[in-house]
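pasting for ref. prot 1 ->
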Amino acid sequence: MPEPHLRAGDTDRAAVATVLGRHMAEGRLTVAEYEERVARAYAARTYGELAELTVDLPATARVPAQPVHQHYSASAAVCGSGMRRGPYQNLHDAWRSWQRTAMFVVAIWAFTSIMAASFIYFWPIWIIGPWGAVLLAQTLTGGSRRRSGHR
């Protein structure tokens, strides 16, 4: 850290809070100690006050933050798909979401058909059909939006 008498900024306070969180996750701090130190970190005015909060903790290697577009899960690397659209990490997750949604809407359709005592129009096709077609196309083409250089 810079000289202890210099004033710290918000990013400095947040960085110390992140380090404290890692130490709590690794079992070096109790929840109470973590909460007390984080409160002190956000109230700290100088680098010296921030340094006091981690003086009894071992130094941890700083992991540089990676931009979102460069982060791919291990399963995405294994599947060969670098898709990062929406909440899905890869095509496997997208298919799993499609399957769960399909089961849910078909169950609703089946329940309403049973309650009506006849098969009603199969409306789930308008939900699972187009979505499944898009996923199938992406699966067969290897994910058309894959970023170049990430295989």
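and prot 2 ->
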Amino acid sequence: MAAPWYWEQAKRALARRDPILGKIIRQHPRIALEPRGEPFFTLARSIVGQQISVKAAARIWDRLVALAPQVSPRQILDAGCEKLVDCGLSGRKAEYVADLAGHFVDGRLQVEQWSDLEDEAVVAELVRVRGIGRWTAEMFLIFNMLRPDVLPLDDLGLQRAVCLHYLKGRSVSARTLRRVSRTWAPWRSVATWYLWRSLDPVPVEY
């Protein structure tokens, strides 16, 4: 699957402006963000990954896929919350994923109408759904809508990478993260993706 249209342009601009990021980009020459076409898949996987490690999320997701191979809203609703909990989801996350599936089945989410909306307007639509906060909405913007300039300030992986590469291990505040990221605009999604790769070379699929 092809990388987003802006990927090569963004890589060149980021490498030129930020030597630290340029080194990371050169270390990962043959991989790029792979777009997902299924909005429900992206949102459900993001809910599964909230506040747990990438490895733990992958294990739970593998069990969920075994339960509902197409990961479609209808399959999830038919499975029910109890079987979602058996996959390793907390009771609350199981409710969130099932509720999300209900939004898709009954048409309360009109994702196809969002392409003309600004990023913040999409976030506002998504956070109305139980279990979807700003971080999950930002993952949707990056991985499904392929928006190029998203900075997920609450993302633990991004915070860890900035601490490691820019701050010599010191903790990072949202203010510092914004300051470090100024030179990345308008390609902050791409910068974030490469900083994730500096911690884990295998891309997460949302």
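The CA atoms of residues 114 and 122 lie 7 Å apart.
The first helix runs from residue 7 to 17.
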